[in-house]
Design a protein that fits this description.
This protein has 234 residues and is α/β, with parallel strands linked by helices. The chain folds into two domains: 120 residues, Rossmann fold, CATH 3.40.50.1100; 99 residues, Rossmann fold. It has seven helices and ten strands. The strands form two sheets. Strands 1-2-10-7-8-9 form a six-stranded mixed sheet, with helices on one face. A four-stranded parallel sheet has the order 5-4-3-6, sandwiched between helices. A hairpin with a 2-residue loop joins strand 1 and strand 2. Helix 1 crosses helix 2 and helix 5 packs across helix 6. The longest helix is centred in the middle third of the chain and has 15 residues. The model has no long low-confidence stretch (mean pLDDT 92).
């Protein structure tokens, strides 16, 4: 399924509203990529990530869209995070890892794939094919738009790299929200909140409080009028 790119203006900033897609921006690419990989025999797709992660929603809704299997590995909690509950309700299998630091969660996910023949997605879905497909999708969406300044949040840094490749004439600003991301030549800003904390300043549109919303304080303070913010999800 192709999702249209919806852009609305808020406080003088143009905002890509991928919060309107159930699994956010990466569902744009993940669903068709999973279908391609299914032709190679893969029937289940696996990701290991944080409890607050939006990747679990992209994975769950992409699997739901394609009719394929999805498993998300996450550190064990007394109560599942709302994003994990949404992913589970969408049909994603949730496997909790006791005392699971992120590297342990990732290791368990990889081992599961080796045992079952499932396909493992790294953090950010950062594979060459995913990056190529997302760059092409962004380039097509932004082709008719004159934009010189773009903002995004950097988890793994994949989105910031795709934005730079898709719109090389624009300056890309990326807001770091956790571990050191790979953002290419983007200008990097550091969110003051810890990864698990929610954004202190929320934008006037639906935005993930643990992720994308953390860019809004910087946009208000530093962005030029007419700049573009790529909002991945709600």
């Amino acid at each position: 399924m192709r999702y249209p790119v919806t852009i609305t203006e808020h406080e003088g900033i143009r905002v890509v509203r991928d919060d309107l897609i159930p699994g956010g921006s990466k569902q744009r690419i993940l669903a068709p990529l999973m279908e391609m990989l299914a032709e190679q025999g893969y029937r289940r797709f696996v990701f290991g990530g944080p409890a607050e992660g939006y990747a679990q929603l992209a994975l769950a809704f992409s699997a739901q869209e394609t009719g394929l299997g999805a498993t998300y590995f996450v550190a064990e909690r007394k109560m599942l995070h709302p994003n994990t509950i949404r992913a589970q309700e969408a049909g994603c299998e949730i496997r909790q890892v006791r005392h699971g630091r992120l590297n342990v969660v990732q290791a368990r996910a990889r081992a599961f794939c080796q045992e079952t023949g499932s396909y493992f997605f790294p953090l950010g879905f950062s594979t060459p094919e995913f990056e190529r497909m997302l760059t092409a999708e962004i380039a097509e969406a932004l082709a008719p738009i004159d934009v010189q300044e773009i903002w995004c949040v950097a988890g793994s840094g994949l989105l910031s790299r795709c934005l730079q490749q898709a719109k090389p004439s624009a300056t890309v600003n990326a807001v770091r929200i956790g571990f050191e991301p790979s953002v290419g030549l983007a200008r990097l800003h550091l969110a003051p909140e810890t990864f698990s904390e929610q954004a202190e300043i929320l934008p006037p549109f639906p935005s993930s409080a643990n992720y994308d919303a953390k860019a809004w304080r910087f946009i208000r303070e530093q962005a030029s009028p007419g700049a573009l913010f790529w909002n991945v999800g709600a």
